[in-house]
Amino acid sequence: MTEPIGRRERKKAQTRKSLADAALQLFLDRGYDQVGVKDVADAADVSVTTLFKHFPCKEALVFDEDDDQESALVDAVRNRAAGRSIPQALREHVLLAGACATDPQFAAFNRLVQDNPALRDYAHRMWMRHEAAVARAIAEEVGAPEGDVTCAALARFAMEARRLIQHQPDRRRAAEEVFALLDHGWAAAHPRLG
User: Fold this and answer.
1) Whole-angstrom Cα distance, residue 175 to residue 97?
2) pTM exceeds 0.85
């Protein structure tokens, strides 16, 4: 049973969400480089000090769901359907994450990130921070020791594949080709485990 969230935690979460929502709206309306952290703090009716208690830098304001992404990646490995290989599960996760691309709000967000080198680089670094957690989950699933180089390699290649796939005109086809390559290599390294 989970503990109920206390008033203080609810208030912190509400402030964090207000900051992220205000930042995204300002960035979309005016452009990322034309908005300062003081503008965001003012729009959320908090001090700049409070903003930095919730977000370590301006770029982080754009990517409020970092912890959720890591959890979803690990779940994709651990809770995959019976008979589905780890590379297949990661492929589906990458495709599902990219499926939002047709949503107009997501498309605007994606343009904001892709058109700004600082945001694009931050997004990639943020995504790759999850590599170690994915590698640990893979190792646990196949009974390999922590730090196993094949598990680390699969995690690295799967995480990097997203960057390749998102720039292809047919993302599904690209994902299928990239992850088929990973799947066949993975099957050779761990034929009994998938």
Assistant:
1) 12
2) no
